[in-house]
Design a protein that fits this description.
With about 900 residues, the protein is α/β, with parallel strands linked by helices. The protein is built from 29 helices and 26 strands. It has a domain at about 1-455: Hexokinase, domain 1 (3-Layer(aba) Sandwich), CATH 3.40.367. The strands form six sheets. A six-stranded mixed sheet has the order 1-11-10-9-12-13, with helices on both faces. Strands 14-24-23-22-25-26 form a six-stranded mixed sheet, with helices on both faces. Helix 9 packs across helix 10 (about 320-330) and helix 10 (about 320-330) crosses helix 12 (about 350-385). The N and C termini lie far apart (about 110 Å). The chain binds adenosine-5'-diphosphate and magnesium ion. Magnesium ion (MG) binds near residues 520, 639 and 844.
């Protein structure tokens, strides 16, 4: 019978594995918005999102409501890494009956304790200063918290049952009571559970502590969860401490098969039968009771105490936790067991003593094992959700079971190791209970609030309001009109260049076309075959040696013709004469579709005799010199136009081209009657806006921030391309870097120590923004490589803040781009006299294509700014190849149609 009893109290490992799984399931259920109401493990958000970093300083008051005491504590922190906080405390006994009386009386009493404590402890110089005194309130009951300083009591427990408190905000109740005591400088800034206080207490030295277990009269655990997983709270970035309330685990029946008949008796005799089933197997309030019921049952079965009267055991509570511990902790001999049982009025035999000891060990051992199982569930969950291979974490522990039972620690570690081998917890004993931690929570809350104010101050100028964006849109519209006007064109910052492209593809284009792409990353020659079944392409990349780039124009264009001949030979295209579209990505003044004067070379080209010349003619001259008749130059094409055309082939509504890559630019189909710079009023013409230069006349000065000014000053073209410098890939990383430097200087980041690397110009690449912003809720992991590259020592909070900076900069870029586009689509809609415009934008550029939020933000803002336009975005493939060929194809089609 003894063996059977002991077996029922020991849970096999495979059953523990299953239990761990159930615990994780219930945790997920508790965190999810849809299911949290049904979850037994409540997973309550605490709104504690940071652990101490050692810079906290000042005086902090704590008041802690305990079983039958009120504890007050004053902690002084020196911002010295919290190595030597000064602490003063006082404990007040609660008057008889107050825990069952009116709520107001309870809170008045707590406030009186605070008042008396302050009167006795605060020395005159602290009193003199009019400083406010923040207070943290440790309230060890289940609350629905909606802010750090807002928490409704859900239910009393632990023998408390004051009227008029359930459903009320207990922070408010305490603050009112304190105000009645005329302690107007005391602000209740944080409320927390004792478990959370323990976690924070253990966070004081060295590494942060991210899990805490309280193994006391009751049992509970809290840990730092990824905030985005805590769906019941609005916080989405960083981490938040979650109060698991795991005592209720099993209330849905999942633990039924491991309950022993003794557990059933304990539960039935409790004041809340059927509830807190897990807690009743592991809480020290219940362990003596479990033993008592086991002894009663075994006596009935005549396995122990045969022939003695055990009537004393019938009384609830006679067998205390202390009795259990005294018996368990005596490894040698049974003298202590005899003493304990004697003191209860039992007359045990030697054999009885041995058996009672075995039962006690089994009950306490099981409690430790179950704690370990719960811990394993928490650790595995943390490891999984942080996407780590191994989790190293500090676990704060406190409570009677932990301090009173020396093997607790060993069992907790070894069993959790078996169940979660991927996790390496380090246990930290909490010496000062939860009070010191509560002071830390309070201190951290104030530090975080101050940090937030300063961060908002730095980022504020980068945040654009709807009115700001409307103004940008209106200014863009104004500049567009000026650029189109014959007289005003010269002074417009948006040049609105005519492209002489007057049609987009209609799908009837057929034939083989050549395309040249000069001025992008590579020099390419392509053949584009447009058939009924679609478009196929072949291309080759050619090298232009530096000597040729910087030699004579003749040599350069001869070289280009050589490449074309080589390509046509390889492609077996020598016998036919093919129309050619030429993407020439240098600033030109276009005077016809096939006539464009080079304004200046850029990107390392400096071939002589070209500036001021018609580049199409230069190419034709070279063809003549080389006697090459296999091609006919039809069009010179800007890459924005190519982008529009390549998408226009698939979607006839595509009448806008947009590029957001190294730079940014846009083009669109404008009515000829509005184009004052070209003769004729019939039909439309594509206008290359060159919108990157928007603002170069000072019209955007009001939105430039100090960061933008620094970035502009360090470019090769200060004061030029001002709009582009707010938006495109070449600059976003650099803007972020400037902000990070300023934040570091203000001690908001990296503990005020920037790495020398971060001070290097352009070291922060725009693609970093994509990586950093992609990390949903898990910034640290994805950012590791970047931080390494920049030699940065970043805390978790640093990472969260870096992400916010990136988000702010990329959001502004997308919004500005949208404001520009809104001006374009609204103008097109008005041009056409439509209430509603449906139009497609062909887009190219790596920033647009690869940044995780840019396109969404752009589209959302555009919808908002131009609600009457239904705008679709289509990604362009190879605008400078396929697009250029299509310009030639459309021009050939139009020419054929005219004949
Ligand atoms: P271009 O505009 O010269 O034709 P791209 O369209 O490829 O070239 O754009 C290049 C720009 O895209 C670079 O300035 C670079 O900073 C940026 N970029 C590259 N990768 C990414 C990425 N993953 N996310 C955001 N921007 C990127
Ligand atoms: Mg490009």
């Amino acid at each position: 019978q003894i063996q059977r009893a002991l077996r029922s109290l020991s849970i096999p490992l495979d059953r523990l594995h299953i239990m761990k799984g159930h615990m994780i399931q219930d945790m997920c259920k508790g965190l999810s918005r849809q299911t949290h109401a049904q979850a037994k493990v409540r997973m309550l958000p605490t709104y504690i999102c940071s652990t101490p970093n050692g810079t906290e300083k000042g005086n902090f008051l704590v008041v802690e409501l305990c079983q039958n005491q009120v504890r007050t504590l004053l902690v002084t922190l020196y911002g010295d890494g919290n190595m030597s906080p000064q602490m003063m405390y006082k404990i007040f006994d609660m008057p008889e009956g107050i825990t069952q009386g009116e709520g107001e009386a309870l809170f008045d009493f707590i406030a009186q304790c605070v008042s008396q404590f302050l009167a006795e402890t605060i020395n005159s110089d602290t009193k003199k200063s009019e400083e406010r005194l923040p207070l943290g309130f440790v309230f060890p009951f289940t609350c629905q918290q909606t802010q750090l300083d807002k928490a409704e009591l859900l239910s009393w427990s632990k023998g408390f049952n004051c009227s008029g408190v359930v459903g009320k905000d207990v922070v408010q109740l305490l603050q009112s009571a304190i105000n009645k005591q005329e302690l107007c400088h005391v602000d209740v800034v944080a409320l927390m559970n004792d478990t959370v206080g323990t976690m924070m207490t253990c966070s004081m030295e060295g590494r942060p502590c991210e899990v805490a277990i309280v193994a006391d009269k009751g049992s509970n655990c809290c840990f730092m969860a990824e905030a985005y997983l805590v769906e019941t709270a609005d916080e989405t970035s960083g981490r938040m401490c979650v109060n698991t309330e795991w005592g209720c685990f099993g209330d849905d029946g999942t633990l039924n098969d491991v309950f022993t008949p003794y557990d059933v008796c304990v539960d039935e005799e409790s004041c809340n039968p059927g509830e807190k089933r897990f807690e009743k197997m592991v809480g020290s309030l219940y362990l003596g009771e479990i033993v008592r019921h086991a002894l009663i049952a075994l006596t009935t079965e005549k396995a122990i105490f045969t022939g003695t009267d055990i009537a004393v055991l019938k009384e609830k509570g006679v067998f205390t936790m202390q009795h259990v511990l005294d018996i368990v902790n005596n490894e040698e001999g049974i003298t202590e067991v005899i003493r304990v049982l004697d003191s209860l009025g039992l007359q045990p035999t030697e054999r009885d003593c041995g058996r009672v000891q075995q039962i006690c060990r089994a009950v306490v051992g099981r409690a430790a094992t179950l704690h370990a199982t719960g811990l394993a569930a928490i650790l595995s969950y943390m490891c999984q959700t942080r996407e780590l291979e191994t989790l190293m974490v500090n676990v704060g522990v406190e409570g009677e079971l932990y301090t009173g039972y020396p093997r607790f620690e060993e069992i907790l570690l070894s069993v959790s190791r078996l169940l979660s081998p991927e996790c390496l917890p380090t246990l930290l004993p909490s010496r000062d209970g939860s009070g010191r931690g509560a002071a830390m929570v309070t201190a951290v809350a104030l530090r975080v609030a101050a940090l937030r104010r300063e961060v908002n101050e730095v980022l504020g100028p980068l945040k654009l309001t709807r009115a700001d964006l409307e103004k940008v849109q209106a200014l863009m519209r104004e500049e567009m009109e000026r650029g189109l006007g014959k007289e005003t064109n010269e002074t417009a910052s948006v040049r609105m260049l005519p492209t002489f492209v007057s049609h987009t593809p209609d799908g009837t284009e057929r034939g083989d076309f050549l395309a040249l792409d000069l001025g992008g990353t590579n020099f390419r020659v392509l053949v584009v075959r447009v058939t009924e079944d679609g478009i196929t392409m072949a291309s080759e990349i050619y090298v232009i040696p530096a000597a040729i780039m910087q030699g004579t124009g003749e040599a350069l264009f001869d070289h280009i013709i050589d490449c074309i001949i080589d390509f046509q030979t390889k492609q077996n295209l020598v016998t036919t004469m093919l129309p050619l579209g030429f993407t020439f990505s240098f600033p030109c003044k276009q005077v016809g579709l096939d006539k464009a004067l080079l304004l200046t070379w850029t990107k390392g080209f400096s071939a002589s005799g070209c500036v001021g010349q018609d580049v199409v003619q230069l190419l034709r001259d070279a063809a003549q010199r080389k006697r090459h008749t296999g091609m006919q130059v039809i069009a010179l094409v800007n890459d924005t136009v190519g982008t529009m055309m390549s998408c226009g082939y698939d979607d006839p509504k595509c009448e806008i081209g947009l590029i957001v890559g190294t730079g940014t630019n846009a083009c669109y189909m404008e009515e000829m009657r509005n184009v004052g710079t070209v003769e004729g009023d019939q039909g439309r013409m594509c206008i290359n806006m060159e919108w990157g230069a928007f603002g170069d006349n000072g019209c955007l000065d009001h939105i430039f921030t100090s960061f933008d000014k620094v970035v502009d000053e360090t470019t090769i073209n200060p004061g030029k391309q001002r709009f582009e410098k707010l938006i495109s890939g070449m600059y976003l990383g650099e803007i972020v870097r400037q902000i990070l430097l300023v934040m570091t200087e203000k001690q908001l980041l990296f503990q005020g120590r920037p790495s020398p690397k971060l001070q290097t110009r352009n070291i922060f690449q725009t693609k970093f923004l994509s990586t950093i912003e992609l990390s949903n809720g898990l910034p640290l992991r994805q950012m590791r490589a970047i931080l390494h590259e920049l030699d940065l020592e970043a805390s978790f909070e640093d990472c969260v803040l870096m992400r916010e900076v990136c988000q702010t900069v990329s959001l502004r870029a997308a919004q500005l781009c949208a404001a520009g586009l809104a001006a374009v689509v609204e103008k097109m809609r008005e041009n056409r006299g439509q209430d509603q415009l449906s139009v497609t934008v062909g887009v190219d550029g790596t920033l647009y294509k690869l940044h995780p939020c840019f396109s969404q933000n752009l589209q959302k803002t555009l919808k908002d700014l131009a609600p009457n336009c239904n705008v679709t975005f289509l990604l362009s493939e190879d605008g400078s190849g396929k697009g250029a060929a299509l310009v030639a194809a459309v021009a050939s089609r139009a020419a054929n149609a005219m004949q």
